[in-house]
Amino acid sequence: LAAVRAGCCMVHGTVNGYGERCGNANTISIIANLQLKMGYECIPEENMVRLTELSRYVDEIANIVPNSHQPFVGHSAFAHKGGIHVSAVRRDSSTYEHIAPEVVGNKRRILLSELAGASNIKLKSEEFDIDLEKNTENVNNILNKIKKLEDRGYHYEGAEASFELLMRKETGEYKKFFDLEGFRVITDSDADGGMRTEATIKVAIDGVSEHTAAEGDGPVNALDNALRKALEKFYPALKSVSLTDFKVRVIDAREGTAARVRVLIESRDGTDAWGTIGVSENIIEASWDAIVDSIEYKLLKEERK
To answer: CA-CA distance, 230 to 225, in Å (whole number)?
Structure first.
């Protein structure tokens, strides 16, 4: 940027800074800064809104997890947390944002945490297109629900998809896409001493039962494979979904093997990424809850298209 200001007229770089050498200039950030902050015309104005799409497309092609903190186009580039902070953003976003996220095709994110207040809930309802104005009691109900769940170990800061589903359940806007009739996970060793895991699952979709089995690298992967195998013939869009991150945290280690665990899952479909959560004394149950939320959120996204 300093070189352009000094008179240079040719800038070399790569999308997201990816390349065979370190230190490549990131053309995404350079274009946004030059055109939006310094007054230079780099690309047609109507293409500026596609910067985020381009960045994530290249991430997908390169098979690299997107940098959520990347300027302008990162998942957290326009993230806000805290009641007073969020209230100010709601009144005048320019008090905390250097540009409107929509200019580069990104979206504002309101993070949910123990700091969440009514302003956060109202902003999230607008983001999710949930009408809370008809029944303001819903805001208090959701806040009370969050506090109870956080006491059990839930944290929605990295699990906004689970939070949207929670809001829809509390406001009567939740749609159930399938019913679980039962599942079983078996892990045993093979003749070579390796471990083999198989999950068997039975679900019902619109009254039609589907019974499937799948193997995986561990119980969570096997469950994920079995559930998607059962649902893909009814919901083909699930074929694009992949589980990209899996985190487990022991909430109270003093309880030993009976401790409650929190499972956070990140899923992607080539366009978007979303996080879901599950909490239980049983790691399989916690993982299952997070997987189900992930699948339901994807189906909800598809229905809204």
So the answer is: 9
